[in-house]
Write a structure and sequence with these properties.
By secondary structure, the protein is of the alpha/beta class. About 35% of the residues lie in helices and about 20% in strands.
Length: about 325
């Protein structure tokens, strides 16, 4: 009996010793650095949603931002350069206080299409979908709040209605000389390019590409084109311009277009889809996104584009 107890004890001590040695000699597995890098990249990857959740289409229960109309002086840059009184709508986020100069905001200049005006985005009353989306994104803490301006994108006029669209191409002068200075002097904005964005639908998408990126990189660094019109510059021209101005980097260039859009799909593809292959400055899912989804040339695509772009520009 004693002998058996002694054997049992010795075996237990031996097992304990082996176990201790095993623990002592075993090493903690080093984390896979490639896996960590991939996880970080996925976490920061820009994802374009396929639809706007219903909860963002409803008014917030309490609070929310406000919409007001402004009048500012410009010129008929397409025309005789005479004085031109212009109108625009401004969304101010919840909590905006004109007296609080310490709290300042970025600004999105949101452009309409060829047949519209400053009211086409519906941002002229409290039932505005733009307002509902912004109020919900802000209250849910998903974005840093920002100001939105919807101006009239025609900078002048022509007595020939067949040529009226040409006034869209002169908006860059109005944006630079009149509208941005007005907003920065009348509202609590962060008056630098890193806190300015430009986006638009159809003709407004063209203006974002031709005027925003190719004329105003020193003023703006965030861009969104929704079904950009057929007169948009091609990808090669855009890529060359961006790469030639490295002192003015693009923070982000977002694109969306409906695959059944017979008006703009081919032209928008030509203007933007291949940019990452042509540019050393614009890279997919870093500061560029091309997104196509089923849809036509309509607000189903454009509202979705706004929702996704608002989250990009306002991301914390």
């Amino acid at each position: 009996m004693k002998k058996n107890l002694c054997v049992t004890f010795c075996m237990a001590v031996a097992l304990l010793f082996v176990g201790c040695n095993f623990k002592k000699e075993s090493k903690v597995t080093e984390p896979n650095q490639d896996a960590i890098k991939e996880a970080i990249e996925q976490e920061h990857k820009i994802v374009s949603n396929d639809f706007i959740p219903a909860e963002y289409r409803r008014p917030v229960k309490e609070g929310g931002g406000s919409i007001e109309q402004i009048t500012y002086m410009s010129k008929k840059y397409y025309g005789d350069k005479s004085d031109n009184e212009k109108h625009a709508n401004v969304y101010l986020p919840e909590g905006y206080n004109a007296e609080d100069k310490a709290k300042r905001y970025g600004v999105l200049y949101l452009m309409h299409g060829i047949g519209g005006n400053e009211n086409e985005w519906g941002m002229n009353n409290n039932d505005s979908l733009i307002k509902k989306i912004m109020d919900n994104l802000t209250q849910k803490g998903e974005i840093e709040p920002f100001i939105i301006v919807t101006p009239n994108g025609r900078s002048g006029s022509d007595p020939n209605p067949q040529k009226a669209y040409l006034a869209f191409y002169q908006f860059g002068s109005e944006l630079r000389n009149d509208l941005i200075p007005y907003m920065d002097s009348h509202y609590n904005t962060i008056a630098d390019r890193n806190h300015r964005a430009m986006a638009g639908l159809s003709m407004g998408g063209m203006q974002t590409i031709n005027i925003g990126i190719c004329e105003s990189l020193d003023l703006i660094s965030w861009f969104g084109a929704f079904s950009a019109a057929p007169t948009s510059y091609d990808a090669s021209r855009v890529a060359t311009h961006v790469d030639s101005n490295p002192e003015y980097p693009v923070n982000f260039f977002y694109n969306i277009c409906g695959t059944e859009d017979s008006i703009a799909f081919a032209s928008h593809v030509n203007a933007a889809k291949l940019i990452p292959r042509l540019s050393t400055s614009l890279k997919e899912n870093e500061n560029f996104l091309w997104y196509e989804t089923s849809g036509g040339h309509d607000f189903g695509i454009w509202n979705l584009g706004f929702y996704n772009f608002a989250k990009i520009f306002g991301r914390k």
